[in-house]
Write a structure and sequence with these properties.
Elements: H1 2-6, H2 10-24, H3 29-49
């Protein structure tokens, strides 16, 4: 990112930084827990519905 930033204008480099940060920003730990709970709940509901 730094090497590419040297070839850009300040405004373009700042836009590039925002773009790169968005690519590597993962979900917050709380969101991961909520997602896992939802997946498990759906799995249980599907398993119970198949009986």
């Amino acid at each position: 990112m730094i090497d590419r930033g040297f070839d850009l204008t300040l405004g373009d480099a700042m836009d590039y930084e925002v773009e790169v940060n968005r690519m590597y920003r993962g979900p917050k730990p709380e969101e991961v827990g909520e997602r896992l709970a939802g997946i498990r709940a759906r799995g249980r509901a599907q398993a119970e519905g198949a009986r």
